[in-house]
Amino acid sequence: MKISVIGGGLAGSEAAWQVAQRGFAVDLYEMRPEKNTPAHQSSSLAELVCSNSLGAKQVTSANGLLKAELEALGSLIIETAYMCEVPAGGALAVDRHKFAALVTEKISQHPRINLIRSECTTLPEGIVIIATGPLSSPAMTEIIQKLTGSEQLFFYDAAAPIVTGDSIDYEQGFWGARYNKGSADYFNCPMTKEEYEHFWHELVNAEQAPLHEGIEDPNVFEGCIPIEIMAQRGIHTLRFGPLRPVGLLDKDGKRPYAVVQLRLENTEKTLFNLVGFQTRLKWGEQKRVFRLIPALHRAQFVRYGVMHRNTFVNAPEILERTYQLRNHPHILLAGQITGVEGYVESVSSGLTAGINAVRLANGQTPLVFPEETMIGALAKYITTAGDDFQPMNANFGILPPLTKTVRNKAARKQAYAERSLAYFHKDRELI
User: Fold this and answer.
1) What's 221's domain CATH number?
2) Which of 131, 188, 223, 294 is the most exposed place for a label (fewest CB within 10 A)?
């Protein structure tokens, strides 16, 4: 039976890879570069838009556990990410250009993947995985609306600015990792009380860019909330959020009043991402306000922060835990369109959809991962959440409780990880 994947992002690339690796030919449709989106800058598959970080690596973190599960299942995206890794302490960050180029090369050269560089405006016959992402084209959005029979929800997502390494004043900051965990891969830009309060005042009063489509009160996903919106909650909000100085000591061994962290964008250390600085300030305002950070007083921006519309379906109403549409079981969804939030979470949905597309083609029952695994817990959450459904990241709160009480937080996370990974270490057929 024919299998098609629509969308060449993280989820779509992973889904197509899983199908091809299991012996089936697959058509992978990607509309770029024929037709672009408001957020993408290249024609590469699996382009990372908001950040170059895929989150923590340790299995005692929710994101790290999810990556370990995906690795155990032969994830293309996770394997390639480690091949393109740049130093980022305990996080898995990648050189985004090398990463996207390598994923594109692997997909293009796979003998069972037919990469079609054209917008898909009608559903192909057979089994279809729709992984068009949160920026689905109008034609595909209309198709999804007709399939689901319900209006799609929406929220706005924000991307952080990127500055050049040679424009940073390194004398005004220091390299380090919080609590000295991992290597000192972040450059920290400290601020005194006076510097921070001046920065905060200018930030909350800076001019914001208007939102698309005339919508002035967007539903912004909390994990990507613009820094200026967060700052409006109070003068100390940022100091307890992305600018928290806890676990960091400056050159004099003292804890700064506030700290802006810069994360490497590439292995050459020529580009840095302002961690937590998703924004929709006007570009001129970003330059003015962010240069108030002492170490960035002469910063050169290669990308300003942007904000764009993200769409997702009401998954509890229309999706199965297998990522199949309930009313159209031969059609599966994957990626952020499902309501999973985050790079690795999108990969998880794509991998699951790819496996289940093959199972459907083979006449097998689609696979439901156990809720004790992060892959399974995420799928269960988005398909069973309550009426006020919002996108969800991987987190330990969606896992079922341990059978034995473990009061120590670190030990409890380790127990969650061991319980989950035991499933993947068993000698069982996963396809």
Assistant:
1) 2.40.30.260
2) 223
